[in-house]
């Protein structure tokens, strides 16, 4: 379905997010171990990577890089639907209270965000643990910037857009918290 295609794009996009950090030797070992665990998990769930692999990009961090030329419409990643972070998958959770809480959320982005928060809080008990482990701890996007950082942008349009986006996400979070959905979704997790 179209929604699942969008979710696949979300999964692909999350796989491709890069973190900006230079790796020390010790960090490189840890990252290599995490990458190996991720690829083992990725293959074990029946997912396939076509002409791409997880790579380290100097000065940028971890990402997905092409191993050969990829043509328009060539498949890049295929992931079983049960492992795609989307509304459909979220509503298959075994916990009925969590399922009802997630089902009450209208916005698909909020559903996926809540599912990811829950799964991250579950740690190694999450079926997505190896995937979540390779995601960056922090993503540098303007709507996460402090007021000082926003002022440094020196672009009034981008500053206004960033503040608007931040306000939108804060309002959504507060609404989910006030409705009790956040508490219900996070019930039974470690954090």
Radius of gyration: 18 Å
Distance between the termini: 34 Å
Q: Give me the side-by-side strand order of the main sheet.
A: 1-4
Order of helices and strands: HHEEEEHHHHHHH
Mean pLDDT reading:
85
Give the strand content. Answer: 5-15%
Number of helices: 9
The helix fraction, in percent, is 40-55%
The total of beta strands comes to 4
Largest sheet: 2 strands, antiparallel
**Structural class assignment:** mainly alpha
* Coarse shape: globular
Describe the overall structure.
This protein is mainly α and 191 residues long. Helices cover 55% and strands 8% of the residues. It contains 9 helices and 4 strands, in the order H-H-E-E-E-E-H-H-H-H-H-H-H. The protein has helices at residues 2-16, 25-44, 87-90, 96-103, 108-122, 129-134, 147-153, 156-179, 181-186; strands at residues 48-49, 52-57, 61-66, 77-78. The strands form 2 sheets. The chain has a two-stranded antiparallel sheet. A two-stranded antiparallel sheet has the order 2-3. A hairpin with a 3-residue loop joins strand 2 (52-57) and strand 3 (61-66). The radius of gyration is 18 Å and the shape is globular. It starts with a helix and ends in a 5-residue tail after the last helix. Mean pLDDT is 85; it is low at 5-22.
């Amino acid at each position: 379905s179209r929604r699942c295609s969008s979710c696949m794009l979300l999964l692909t996009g999350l796989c491709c997010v890069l973190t900006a950090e230079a790796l020390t030797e010790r960090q490189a070992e840890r990252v290599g171990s995490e990458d190996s665990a991720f690829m083992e998990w990725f293959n074990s769930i029946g997912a396939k990577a076509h002409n791409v692999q997880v790579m380290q990009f100097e000065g940028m961090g971890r990402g997905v890089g092409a191993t050969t030329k990829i043509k328009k419409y060539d498949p890049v990643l295929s992931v079983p639907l049960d492992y795609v972070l989307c509304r459909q998958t979220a509503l298959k959770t075994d916990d009925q209270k969590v399922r009802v809480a997630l089902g009450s959320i209208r916005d698909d982005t909020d559903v996926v965000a809540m599912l990811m928060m829950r799964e991250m809080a579950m740690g190694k008990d999450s079926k997505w643990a190896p995937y979540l482990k390779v995601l960056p701890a922090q993503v540098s996007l303007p709507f996460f910037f402090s007021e000082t950082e926003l002022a440094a942008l020196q672009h009034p349009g981008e500053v206004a857009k960033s503040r608007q986006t931040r306000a939108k996400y804060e309002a959504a979070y507060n609404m989910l918290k006030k409705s009790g959905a956040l508490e219900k979704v996070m019930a039974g997790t470690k954090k």
